[in-house]
C-alpha cells in the first residue's frame, strides 16, 4: 500500500502492535519527532511519553511508552519499549499505579538521567490523568 510503512511496538513481554501506519509521532529523548514513509534511517532513545499512531483509515492510536528505543528506516519503524500501555485502556487505577511507580523511581534515581526519565514519566502521566 503506497503511503504507509510497517510500525511495530515491542515490549519485553510481547509484540504489542504490528500494523501499517501513515505517520507515527515518537517521544524521542531530544523531543517528539514524526516518522513518515521514506524517513531517513535513525535510531533514537525514547523518553517516557505518548506514541501517536495514525492508521491508513486516518484513525489514531495512542500508546504510553516508558523509555526504550526507536529504530527507523524508509519502510519500517520499530519501537522497543520498556513498558507500553494503550492510553484509551488506561483507567484511573492504572494511571495511579504508574504514577506511584514513577514517583518511586524518582526517589531512587541515582543520577540526572534517571531523574530526567522519572520526571518525564510523571509529567506525561499527570497529563493523561487530567485527560
Helix-strand blueprint:
Blueprint: E1 5-10, E2 15-21, E3 23-28, E4 31-35, E5 42-46, E6 49-54, E7 60-65, E8 68-73, E9 76-81, E10 84-86, H1 92-108, H2 112-130
Parallel strand pairs: 1-9
Antiparallel strand pairs: 1-2, 3-4, 3-6, 5-8, 6-7, 7-10, 8-9
Helix pairs in contact: 1-2
Features:
2 domains, 131 residues, ATP Synthase, domain 1, alpha+beta
What does this structure look like?
- The chain has 131 residues and is an alpha+beta fold.
- It folds into 2 domains: 5-86, ATP Synthase, domain 1, CATH 2.60.15.10; 90-130.
- It is 27% helix and 43% strand.
- The chain has 2 helices and 10 strands; from the N terminus they run ββββββββββαα.
- The protein has helices at residues 92-108, 112-130, and strands at residues 5-10, 15-21, 23-28, 31-35, 42-46, 49-54, 60-65, 68-73, 76-81, 84-86.
- The strands form 2 sheets. Strands 2-1-9-8-5 form a 5-stranded mixed beta sheet, with no helix packed on it.
- α1 packs antiparallel against α2 (112-130).
- The longest helix has 19 residues, at 112-130.
- The protein starts with a strand and ends with a helix.
CATH topology term of the largest domain: ATP Synthase, domain 1
Largest sheet: 5 strands, mixed
Q: Mind telling me the CATH superfamily name of the largest domain? A: F0F1 ATP synthase delta/epsilon subunit, N-terminal
Determine Rg (CA atoms, Å).
15 Å
Helix content: 25-40%
User: What's the N-to-C terminus distance?
Assistant: 34 Å
CATH class of the largest domain, named Mainly Beta
Number of strands: 10
**H/E element sequence:** EEEEEEEEEEHH
On the 0 to 100 scale, the average pLDDT is 92
Estimated share of beta-strand residues: 35-45%
The tally of domains stands at 2
Amino acid at each position: 500500500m503506497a503511503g504507509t510503512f510497517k510500525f511495530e511496538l515491542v515490549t519485553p513481554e510481547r509484540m504489542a502492535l504490528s500494523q501499517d501506519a501513515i505517520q507515527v509521532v515518537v517521544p524521542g529523548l531530544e523531543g517528539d519527532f514524526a516518522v513518515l514513509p521514506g524517513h531517513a534511517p535513525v535510531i533514537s532513545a525514547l523518553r517516557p511519553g505518548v506514541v501517536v499512531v495514525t492508521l491508513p483509515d486516518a484513525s489514531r492510536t495512542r500508546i504510553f511508552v516508558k523509555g526504550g528505543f526507536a529504530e527507523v528506516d524508509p519502510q519500517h519503524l520499530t519501537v522497543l519499549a520498556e513498558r507500553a500501555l494503550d492510553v484509551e485502556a488506561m483507567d484511573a487505577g492504572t494511571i495511579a499505579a504508574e504514577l506511584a511507580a514513577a514517583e518511586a523511581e524518582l526517589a531512587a534515581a541515582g543520577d540526572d538521567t534517571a531523574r530526567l526519565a522519572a520526571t518525564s514519566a510523571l509529567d506525561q502521566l499527570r497529563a493523561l490523568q487530567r485527560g
